[in-house]
Amino acid sequence: MNSVYHINKGINQSIEFKGLKAQYIWYLGGGVVVLMIVFAVMYIIGVPPLICVGLIIGAGSFLIFKIYRMSNTYGEYGMMKALASRQVPKSLKVRSRSVFIR
Predict the structure, then answer these.
(1) Which of 33, 38, 63, 97 gets the highest tally of CB atoms within 10 A of its CB?
(2) Any residues with CB less than 8 A from the CB of 48 and at least 6 apart, and which?
(3) Could you give the CA distance from residue 82 to residue 21 in angstroms, rounded to a whole number?
(4) Which pLDDT tens digit goes with each residue over 5-31?
C-alpha cells in the first residue's frame, strides 16, 4: 500500500508535518540519521544486536519526545528567541560619562 503524507502549508504559514513545526522537522531528521549511524557503529564494533536495538529504540523515543515537546513549547521562532534572550546582558556598566556628554 502506498501512503501519502500531506504537508499543511497555508499562505504565510510555516511548514507543519505531523505536529512538528518549521525547523523541528529538520532536527528530527538529523537525529534519526545520527541514531542510524550510532546503530551501525555499535553493530560493527560487535555489540549484540538486541542491545543495539534496545538502546536505539530508547534513544529514539527520547529524541522524539524532546523534539515534539520543544515544538509545542516554543513554536516556530520561540526557541531562537529564547536562545537570543540568554545572550542579552542583564545590565550595562558605564565607567565614564563621555557616552552621555556630546
Answers:
(1) 63
(2) none
(3) 16
(4) 766 666 666 777 777 777 888 889 999
Q: Residue 87 — pLDDT band, cuts 50, 70, 90?
A: confident
Is 15 in contact with 25 (CB distance < 8 Å)?
yes
- Which DSSP helix (H) or strand (E) runs through 90? none
Report the residue count for the chain: 102
Question: Does the pLDDT of residue 78 top 70, yes or no?
Answer: yes
Helices (H), the chain: 24-45, 49-74, 78-87
Cell 545590565 belongs to residue: 91
Is pLDDT of 99 > 80? no
Residues 6+ apart with CB under 8 A from 59: 35, 38
Helix axes 24-45, 49-74, angle to 10 degrees: 170
Domain ranges of the chain: 16-75
